[in-house]
Amino acid sequence: xxxxxxxxxxxxxxxxxxxxxxxxxxxxxxxxxxxxxxxxxxxxxxxxxxxxxxxxxxxxxxxxxxxxxxxxxxxxxxxxxxxxxxxxxxxxxxxxxxxxxxxxxxxxxxxxxxxxxxxxxxxxxxxxxxxxxxxxxxxxxxxxxxxxxxxxxxxxxxxxxxxxxxxxxxxxxxxxxxxxxxxxxxxxxxxxxxxxxxxxxxxxxxxxxxxxxxxxxxxxxxxxxxxxxxxxxxxxxxxxxxxxxxxxxxxxxxxxxxxxxxxxxxxxxxxxxxxxxxxxxxxxxxxxxxxxxxxxxxxxxxxxxxxxxxxxxxxxxxxxxxxxxxxxxxxxxxxxxxxxxxxxxxxxxxxxxxxxxxxxxxxxxxxxxxxxxxxxxxxxxxxxxxxxxxxxxxxxxxxxxxxxxxxxxxxxxxxxxxxxxxxxxxxxxxxxxxxxxxxxxxxxxxxxxxxxxxxxxxxxxxxxxxxxxxxxxxxxxxxxxxxx
Length: 484
Description:
Elements: H1 7-27, H2 32-42, H3 54-62, H4 69-94, H5 99-111, H6 113-118, H7 125-145, H8 149-162, H9 171-181, H10 192-212, H11 217-227, H12 234-247, H13 250-263, H14 269-276, H15 279-289, H16 303-315, H17 319-345, H18 355-359, H19 369-376, E1 384-387, H20 390-399, E2 406-408, H21 418-421, E3 432-437, E4 449-462, E5 465-478
Helix pairs in contact: 1-4, 1-5, 2-3, 2-20, 3-4, 4-5, 4-7, 5-16, 7-8, 8-10, 12-13, 12-15, 13-14, 13-16, 13-17, 16-17, 19-20
């Protein structure tokens, strides 16, 4: 394995992997989350209800000349390439300028399921991961080179990271803790860390201004979403751990976590830095999961520095550890490739084992929206579409080419950015469609309109297996007061 870990080979590997990502990005339909974030980019704002605005800015930039799926997702590929360069540079600094270990770090970072997915599905995680990587790199340059200019570059990156996702703020106490535990505490006696923080705050100011004008609703939503809940449930922690075993792959995670723990007690500040910018984040969300069911991607930022702890298995020189690294990363490659190949080609015959499992397959969310969009276009005289889902409404807008204003059933669906756009404000008295899928919560939609027409259905199948059914109800004369 080590003989394969050269600069030339890793460039070839990343190049081939990028081609695979390009193919996936160009051929898979938009995931519901992606369609929602794409819609954000059509309504530029200082911030949004669900997240800060950077993902919308990225999509806006990459779709200036084309709205195709590939261009909506293009920044995910660009982010993966930039992070590969940062991982190469940092690994050489951490591990005595060894090229094989830098190649190993880049290899591992690119094949985690979480990073493989992140380069295919464009979400706030993509820009957050990018600027987190820059922050980890630049703060280390502060401590390595001792040049004040890196404080200001770090502050800029931190601010851009906060414009991407609020969880980037977790890096601040971790860097402070690292400084307190090392000789880098000397920086507290200078003006540079404080001006760096002020710069980050200035860059983040648009989100603060937006929230100030909206009763701090975005912060309240994210705090409740991430840290809410009442009863303590140990089963949630088990579920969280299972999620982490998947996002990094089981053997990689089980091999890397003990190294991060050991690094806390190593004398080299490189090791302490690696551990502090990874392990506490995984622990933090593990603790939070005791009161709130967490999503597997929440601690995703930790896996940038986690990569270097995993790479250390090669650096340690132990033959057993090298075998462990090789086995773990090969298993990770198989898992990631299997997941992406299945997403595109449906190679895992889940329906043979369980119809319920086949219907709940997460990769099903890449299918059905093109067909639904084409079906909706057949309805002449339609002025608008209503659905009980902000994601479904976004998919309809995208796959009908914005031909129909689409809104949400505000009386039953959760609050979202749609509540601010008010897409249906001029549709009172006009005819439209109410569309929902099996399993969706629906309101008493008969009361929203003057009368209801016929209902038709469109069944979405994947390799001849039905995965979803949409109900299309003709609705006449939208009543006043439907939109709050």
